[in-house]
Write a structure and sequence with these properties.
315 residues, alpha/beta, Spore Coat Polysaccharide Biosynthesis Protein SpsA, Chain A, 2 domains, 44% helix
């Protein structure tokens, strides 16, 4: 059985479509755990109405505590052999969970990673291919850190053996919780199956955390620093990959803090990180082109980075 965990907070315009996409899955052995994280709109009512029509849905109410706490609450209630996460403003392809489960069975892997679809309209009619490849976990972490070959750090669009969460949980009170946990989950196994199947449909929500600026987004700096320390100590062969991810975060936070007039000491710290790590990444053949363009720009100073950042964001 697969436990599908859906944290929900004030997504009344999205949650019904999300739930219906999970309810329509061709893989039938599911439990659907919706964690209502203290919603103040009609989200909870919509979830309970759906639960009345489908016995697989269980609604768990809790005071608002953030995405990490809500996901951990869902894990506390999960009983499936595998776990899948879906954000309440996104949707799944009808064959998503069957595709992931089939790959897990055929490959014998405890983690299966597939792809996001960022298009405006979900392509539900597109046939999914069951093709996959198996790579070692260290390689999967490396690709995710470099953000290449379609690998991302989100826990969505993936399947995890539930027992992995006996040891690791989402860090409460920290944003960028997926970046904070993915490498710790991957490091519990030797092999990971990856697929190009577009199983997960990301829907741009203008009110979501990632699409709005708040000081909480500065958590990315600490998350990357913690990740780097873990990798230095546990997977030292990936030190350069971890440093490149820290460099990417420094660029991002430098641009955002400057645009949003945040305490200039943060931008100064980011600039020091960029200067310290940029040459190493520039000479690293595994670093993606976007990062290398940013590095070259950085030699023109911070004003050059800010001026051209909008152009870079298109690529």
């Amino acid at each position: 059985m697969i436990s599908v965990i859906i944290p929900a907070y004030n997504t009344e315009n999205y949650i019904e479509d999300c739930l219906e996409s999970v309810m329509r899955q061709s893989y039938g052995d599911l439990e659907i755990i919706v964690v209502n994280d203290g919603s103040t709109d009609s989200t909870a009512n919509i979830c309970r109405r759906k639960a009345n029509t489908d016995k697989r849905i269980k609604v768990v109410d809790r005071p608002n505590g953030g995405l990490s706490r809500a996901r951990n609450t869902g894990l506390d209630h999960a009983t499936g052999e595998f776990v899948a996460f879906v954000d309440s403003d996104d949707m799944l392809h009808p064959e998503a969970l069957k595709t992931l489960a089939d790959i897990a069975t055929k490959s014998g892997c405890d983690i299966v990673a597939a792809r996001y679809d960022y298009s405006e309209t979900p392509h539900f009619d597109e046939q999914l291919t069951p093709k996959y490849m198996v790579i070692d976990a260290e390689r999967a972490i490396e690709l995710t850190l470099y953000q290449t070959l379609g690998m991302n750090n989100s826990v969505c669009g993936k399947l995890f053996r539930r027992s992995f969460f006996d040891k690791e949980r989402f860090t409460v009170g920290t944003m960028f919780e997926d970046l904070d946990i993915f490498y710790r989950l991957y490091n519990q196994t030797d092999r990971i199956a990856i697929s190009t199947a577009l199983v997960y449909f990301y829907r741009a929500n203008p009110t979501s955390f990632i699409n709005t600026w708040t000081p909480a987004r500065l958590d990315a700096i600490k998350v990357c620093d913690d990740m780097a320390r873990y990798i230095y100590n546990n997977i030292p062969s990936l030190k350069k990959a971890a440093d490149d991810r820290r460099l990417s975060t420094a660029f991002n936070m430098l641009i955002n803090t400057t645009r949003n007039k945040v305490d200039p000491t943060v931008a100064k710290e980011c600039w020091q990180t960029i200067k310290r790590l940029r040459l190493q990444s520039l000479m690293n053949p595994k670093v993606r082109l976007k990062n290398k363009i940013g590095i070259i720009m950085s030699y023109g100073g911070t004003k050059t980075i800010i001026t051209l950042s909008r152009w870079l964001s298109k690529y």
